[in-house]
Every structure is written in structure tokens, then in C-alpha cells.
Amino acid sequence: MKKFLIITFLSCFVGTTVYSQNTLLDILTIVAEGLNSNNNAYNAPVPTLKDLGTVKLDVNSTSNEFWSGGKSRNYCAVPVPDGTTKWFYRATVLPIESNYSYASNETLYYLLSNNKKVDLYAPSPYGVNIKFFNHSGEIESFYQGLSTYKSYQQLNKTNTRTTLGAIDFYQPKFWIGIQNENQMDGLKVIVEVVAMGNFSN
Predict the structure, then answer these.
(1) Which terminal residue of the chain, N or C, has fewer Cβ atoms less than 10 Å from its own Cβ?
(2) Are the C-beta atoms of residues 13 and 171 closer than 8 Å to each other?
(3) Which residues are CB-contacts of 101 (< 8 A; sequence separation ≥ 6)?
(4) In this predicted structure, what is the pLDDT of residue 150?
(5) pLDDT tens digits, residue range 66-75?
(6) pTM of the model
(7) Residue 39 banded pLDDT, cuts 50, 70, 90
């Protein structure tokens, strides 16, 4: 099952900056500095934020995968529009049966746009592995359960319940992979992405 999410990723693998911050306050600071930067001296447009959507990904337990044919890995495709300078993501891990969605004033886009800080919501005691890919063959190998895939090690997160990230990175095509290594419990992951940059529309 393939799911698609229009998201934005950013400027060039060479010289990638991976921010280690895992608090919203850190990311709010990055956003404020970017949006308030004085570009007028260079006649450059002022950056804006763009909400690139939300997707929910189910990942079954490894026992469900073994006995019932479920999938303990899932992913979303992330086509990259032009003009992005930074992107911010939040991944929230929930029990697989959950129907939870963030309220409109709790979404990542709302929080960044309005400089609001809230605590991370992490209702599940279990975590997932989050992996990043830039080739369709590699994400397919990951999805099929192979161990020979290549991902961006400096971007990946291991056994995370809820996480935030801010990254300078650009690739025309990108994928986010989710892996559940729990033997008994299936999980659901809400993935949100917000871009900052100069967009034509």
C-alpha cells in the first residue's frame, strides 16, 4: 500500500545541515530567524511558510506481519516543490486503533505560523524507526522487508515515540519510511511537514 503526501524538502545533499533539536522552542527560533531575516538589502523575497499536508501511516506488529501478512513497514512519497530553504516535520506515534487527529490550532503549521509552543504529544509507550530515502528502489526494498536498502543515516531516528526535526536539504524526490519493530502492538504515525522558503504559488 503506497501513500502519497505533497511535502517539501530542501537545498542540496552536499553540505546538509541536520538540526539535532527535538523541542518545538528550538524550531520556533529557527523559523523566527528565517522569517524575520532582513533580505531587503539584497532585493530578495521574504521567506514564507507553506503547509504541505498530513498523512497517517499504519504499521502492524512483527507478529502480525509474520502470521497474518500485515506490514510492519510503511512509507509516504514526498515530491519536492521549488523554492524551499528549510523544512520542518513532526511524527506522532499512536496506537494503531486510534482515530486521533490534531485540532486546527495544534497542527505543526499552526504552531510555527503563530509562534506557539506546546509540549509534544506522545500517547504511545512504543516507538518506531523513521528513515529517509531519495530513490524509489531503496524505499521499495525497505517496504518489502529487505535489509540491503540504503537510507540517509544522519537523518534517521530510532525508536522514537514523537519527534520534531528541522533540516536543510533538497532532493527532487524523497520518501519517509516508518518501521515498527514491536512484536505485539501495531502503531499509527501522523506525519506533518511544513516548508519555509520562497514559493511561486
Answers:
(1) C
(2) yes
(3) 190
(4) 95
(5) 999 999 999 9
(6) 0.83
(7) low
Task: Reduce the DSSP state of residue 65 to 3 states and report it.
Answer: helix
d(CA 193, CA 135): 19
Residues near 31 by beta carbon (within 8 Å), at least 6 away in sequence: 49, 88, 112, 115, 196
State the virtual CA torsion across 47, 12, 25, 133 in degrees, nearest 10.
Answer: 130
Which residues fall within 8 angstroms of residue 185, CB to CB, at 6 or more apart?
61, 95, 96, 126
Quick check: 63 and 132 in contact, CB under 8 A? no
Q: Which of 68, 45, 178, 177 is nearest to 124 (CA)?
A: 178
The C-alpha atoms of residue 160 and residue 142 are separated, in whole angstroms, by 18
The pLDDT tens digits for 96-143 are 999 999 999 999 999 999 988 877 899 999 999 999 999 999 999 999
Rounded Cα–Cα distance for residues 159 and 198 (Å): 34
AA letter at 13: F
| CA distances from residue 21 to 116, 136, 166, 168 in whole angstroms, order as listed | 16, 29, 8, 13
Q: Which of 128, 89, 78, 82 is nearest to 111 (CA)?
A: 89
Question: Which of helix, strand or coil describes residue 169?
Answer: coil
